[in-house]
Structures are given as structure tokens and as C-alpha cells.
From TrEMBL:
Keywords: Glycosyltransferase, Transferase. InterPro entries: EarP. Protein-arginine rhamnosyltransferase that catalyzes the transfer of a single rhamnose to elongation factor P (EF-P) on 'Lys-32', a modification required for EF-P-dependent rescue of polyproline stalled ribosomes. NCBIfam families: efp_Arg_rhamno. This is Protein-arginine rhamnosyltransferase.
Amino acid sequence: MQADIFCRVVDNYGDIGVCWRLARQLARDHGWDIRLWVDDLASFAHIQPGIDASAPRQQAAGVDIVHWSDAPDPALTPRDVVIEAFACDPPAAFVDGMRRSHPVWINLEYLSAEAWVESCHGLPSQRPDGLVKHFFFPGFTAATGGLLRESGLSAERDALQASAGLQDSFLRSAGVPDDALALRRDGARTVSLFCYPSAPAGELAQALAADSRPTLLLAPQGVAPGLETACQAPGAPRLVRLPFIAQPDFDRLLWCADLNFVRGEDSFVRAAWAARPLVWQIYPQEENIHLEKLDAWLARYPAPESAHALIRAWNQPESGDTSAAATAALAPDAWLAWIAAARLWDASQSALPGLAENLAAFCADLAKKR
């Protein structure tokens, strides 16, 4: 298959994060010839070293990357498959070309655990111009498109998590100093934090300071800027700021942590594959629609109620409940139950086909019917 993937960057790293993983996996695991159109190469460069933010066209990891401008090169005509991520709409001139070639057209939707997704997954939408767009929904059941998961991911994760030496070596290369690594060896809990500005990070720091177990807190530069002040209190977490890193290294960071705070879609799925407790900050939407989506996922996530309470509080900072909820979720019995639940969640999702595998099969079937 030859395919175009269109990505319009809205949430800095989430949109391009999903599209870049999908493009690489379709190219590597399924032999597709991928052309990835991206409107914001600067954000892309933060998660993929070597990307030239000024280049109109370049290659990386076997993928042809095109800067999606207002005037796309007319020579770049539609391929067998056109994937628009999150309803981003390809350029009008490109769609004109699609009317002549009639490729398989996929709208890759946002991830959701809501029940209605199953009945909408794969449905076609006939347009007046004769083109047909199919809706492809990532999800958590066999009746959806599944989750992005590379082949061999679990084995690589297990090898790293089984070796304290490999973890120390990776964290050191990522920018964690030796004295902070010594805290880990002495039993400190490692927490990674990647959140939106609305997250109650200060309340989290208070709860971690009150915990009997010390904490090493790893956060990217620029995320939760008030943490430096919050982490100066007695017993406060040892805060280490890390630069933005490539996606494979971000996975390894999540594997090294005992607890991962993540945001959006891409980092949320990667934290699930870490098989460690996670707290998800869902992308905020008007009228709190995002909280309904959060509840739909929590209804599937087998963690104890104390973990659910922390996740809800993290997404509703105005409640002021984060500190107390974190204290309850990290209590010894609750913490052990959460660890077991994270492993169960990983195992149940790993038993399902992955998103790239499902998408490749879906497109091949549609292509045969054209």
C-alpha cells in the first residue's frame, strides 16, 4: 500500500505523536510506503531528533515527510490510501485529485471508551462528490480499531523493568543525575509528570511530601512551572527537569517510573503499555464533555476506587481533592492493588490486535472492493 497521512498539530505533541507512531509502524511492520503531511514541523522536531523544521520535504525512519503548507505541491497526487487524523481535512486541491483516483479515505478518530464508538467504527460516509470516507475509531475492545502497539514492545519493556542497571543507564542518559538515581536505589518512588497547565501539580507535591516514602519526580522542561516552588517544602519530592526526548525514549521513561501522570491520547496509551499505575489528564472540552469520556474509561480500568478518585480529582482541580486523593491512593494496600490492576489492564489490552494491524487489514479489504 502507498498512503498519505495528514496531521494538523493542535495539542503540541499529541496529534503528531499518534501520527508519527502510526506512520512508522505501517512502514516498518506492514511494508507501507508512507507520506506524512505535517503542518507544524517545529513541534514534530521536539519528539523526533533530526527533523528540520524549515524543510519542505525530508525523510525519517523510512517515512517521506512533507511540510503541509497552504499551497501543496500539485505533483504530490493522492495515493492508494488517504488517512486524515482527527478530521483535519486534506487540502481542497488534494481532495480534487482524490475525486479522480478514488482512494480509500480514512478519518482516524480520537480514542474513546464510550459504548457508542463500537457501533460507529468502520462506518462509511458517502459524500455528494462520490467520495466515501470511513471512520476508524481507536478503542479498548475487539469491536473497535484497538490501540497503537509496536511488535516486540512488551518484551523490550519487560527486559528494562527487570534490570535496575539498565534503568539507571537509561535515566542517566536522559538527564537524571547520579544523586537522584541514588534515591531510587534507596527505595524512593519514581513519578513521571506530563500534564496540562490546569493540573493541580502543587497539591500533588504536597501529598508526595507527606508520604512516608520519598519521591523522585521527573517532569519535562516547561511543564507545571510552579513545581520548583512546591518542591522546596520539607520532605518534598526531588524534582528533576528533563528535556523533551524521542518517542522510544519517552516509552522507556514511563517504563522506569512507578507512577505515570500523562495527558492527552498518545502519552496515555504509552503509559498503559508501561504496565504501571497511571493518572490520565484528558484533554479538556467545553461543558465538561471530557469528564464523560473519562468516566467511560474508568468504568473499564480495573484499578481500585482510591485510584479512580485520584484520577477524577486530577481532572477537576477546582474540587481541591487532589492531595487527599493522592494520599489515599498511595497508601500501601491501595498502592499494591493499583499495581496489580495496571498489569491486568496491560495484559487484557495486549491480547487484542493493535491499531496499525487492524487499520492495515481494514484498508486492504476496502481496496479489494473498489
